[in-house]
Amino acid sequence: MNFNESLEKLTALVTGDLADLRQLLIALLIGLAVLLFFIYLSRWIKKIVRTRLNKRTEDSLLAAFIAGSIRLLIMLFGITLVLRFLGLTGAVSGLLAGAGITAFIIGFALKDIGENFLAGILLAFKRPFKVGDIVEITGISGKILALNLRDTQIKTPDGKDVFLPNASIIKSPLINFTIDGYLSYGFTVGLGYGCDYQKAIALITQTMQQVPGVLTGKKKPVALVTEMGDNSLQVRVNYWVNTYDRKQPDVQVRSQAIIAVLKALEKEGVPLPGKIIEIKSPLQTGKGSI
To answer: What domain of life does the UniProt record list for this protein's source (predicted)?
Structure first.
């Protein structure tokens, strides 16, 4: 049925007698009921598919994406069925064509939607990340929350929710900091010259192994000398954390590690010199240091 035929049918129903108007209202109510049925049906099937996929695979991101895609297909089928029942399939197409926006929608809107949808399918099956991973995409860092049909939701460290189009993720370099579940951190501490360096380094390593959240075993903390500073020996302390064990945030583990190392060194009398700046004044013969 084309646009003119659909318009003539609607005009006849509206301008007709009471029986025709009653017929139109009944048709609209039935169409609304069918649409609501497909809405609830799509939600129910999505829930079932997602539950079963989660039992068969550990990738909740893939399960959620497939379930969402199935729901979308069911909704499109339901909308098409309702339009055919009301005899408005041709009317909708005619309105789009008559308004001159069909080419615009197909050329632009549908192009972006289709591109992001296909990119989402690639991301779901290629799986460069999963829910909870910490990633960096196009300069934006954060935790993956969800992969939708059009975009990927990321939670930044400062609490912002960023929605990146799937197509832009496919086209851009992606850094996954936690793909294997581990993340490395580090800090630098200065040891005063003249102390027992080997003893101090061993004390740092031993202290780090007792900090909650710092991994031991194969990924145990390591303290290595990096360079000789002006007034101290620079030691780099590296350690690993398990990103899937979120009992303590990474920033809290780092804070506790630094404080524990400083306290242990101070207790053993290891000098921790600060940076010395010598100030000379042309009006004074003496000199001071800060």
So the answer is: Bacteria
